[in-house]
Structures are given as structure tokens and as C-alpha cells.
Amino acid sequence: MRNMNHLITISFFVLSINFFAQDKQDEQNEIVAVWITPDEIKVEIYKEGTRYIGSPINSEGERNTEIEVLNLEYKEGKWSGKIFSKKRERLLDVECQVEGDKLHLEVTARFISADLQWSRAR
């Protein structure tokens, strides 16, 4: 009977780890989508290895993999990495957070930061 109790306890422990890992995976993948920028440009964010890459979508609806406008990594519950600034023509630091159908981006250039918001495409 004692062995059976240990077996049940271990089973619940293993199952709870799997459920937690699935929740964490879902949280990481919520950024994987097509997003619309304030300039009405569609950017598809997809996972490639451990990185999350954002590439523009052309007029035919295809991803342009030759251009990366976003390169993120999911660490400590948030996405952070680099975003390409067309205006400055260089990479800037960015942190992102998904809230429902909105992607909030905090872009930092040296000591100045700006907040952007992208919308999930439907």
C-alpha cells in the first residue's frame, strides 16, 4: 500500500510538470502570428529554433525571409531582442509583451525609448 501511495504521488508530480510545461509553451507561442504595424505593414512572427523572427508579408501574403525586422528570444517570461528601425536604418533593442490581440513593443535607442503597438491580423 505504501508503494502505491508513492507511485500515485510521483504520477501527480510528473503530470503537474507536464501541465506547467504546456502552459509555458503556450505562453511562448502566443507571439507566433501575423501582426499589423501602425504603418499597415504585416509582419509574421514565427519560431525558428529558439528564436522568434519577424519578417514582412508581401502583397501575395508570403513571408519575405530575406528581411528580418524582428529577432527575439523568450527569457524570464518576456520577449527581448532587436528590431530594425527603417527611420534610423539600424537595429534597436526591443522588449515585447502580448496582451490579447495587441503586441506591445518598447523600443530603446541608447537612453530614449518609445512604445509601439501592433495588432493581430484576423
Q: What is the topology, as strand order, of the major beta sheet?
A: 1-2-3-4-5-6-7-8
> In terms of structural class, how would the helical and strand content be classed?
alpha+beta
Mean pLDDT across residues: 82
Q: Using only CA atoms, what is the Rg?
A: 19 Å
What is the helical fraction, as a range of percent? 10-25%
Shape descriptor: globular
Q: Sheet bearing the most strands, described?
A: 8 strands, antiparallel, barrel
| Secondary-structure element series | HEEEEEEEE
Q: What share of the residues does DSSP label as strand, in percent?
A: over 45%
Uncertain segments are 6-25
Q: Work out the oligomeric state of the chains in this entry.
A: single chain
Question: How many individual helices?
Answer: 1
Topology, number of strands: 8
The span between the termini is 55 Å
Structure notes:
The structure is a single chain. The protein has 1 helix and 8 strands, in the order αββββββββ. It is of the alpha+beta class and about 120 residues long. It has an 8-stranded antiparallel β-barrel with strand order 1-2-3-4-5-6-7-8. Helices cover about 25% and strands about 50% of the residues.
